[in-house]
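#structure-requests
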Amino acid sequence: MNIFKVGDSQKAICESCQSVENVTFQLRNVPFNDGSGIATNILAGVCNKCNEVILIPQQSAPLINKQLRATRKPIESKVPAHFVDMLNNACAELGAQPDFSNALIKYYVHMLSHEAMPTDELKTYLKSNLAAGKSDKRISLKSSILRDELATLRSKTHIKSTSSVIKAIVLKIHDDIQVHPQPNLINQLKGVVAAVS
């Protein structure tokens, strides 16, 4: 990947000018493709003739994605208070702080939706005694791909609501880490904790 600096230039096709034009890299505000907002202060190639952004270098993609994720509405789920306790205890078992719990849920959602973990038992967790209780705590998750992965899980498991899927995943986390510890999985998760700590 070529790394460009502010002030670098090259030639590129400008759709507005309908010709090949000189482009200078500048910091600009660029609208997201989906129209949901604007990425600010992004390195972009600007046509020297019409002053339009016509080129976004690959190096700007991570910053654009970060800003796009920040504009996404979080996925909210209501759970009983003991679910938060189960997540905090699972985090402690992995050597993580309680704020790792959201990353832990997202890890499970990702692995389950991509069939790296079996999904057939998820619905069963919702019939357990631990699944009951007044839902008075909130779990808030943000991720650019989480919505799609949760939709995949709802379809695969025939669990109707996102909140129920999240509840089933928390119960699976509790089972995998504390009730019937899975040593290989626990070691993988400890590696993730070490990497993000």
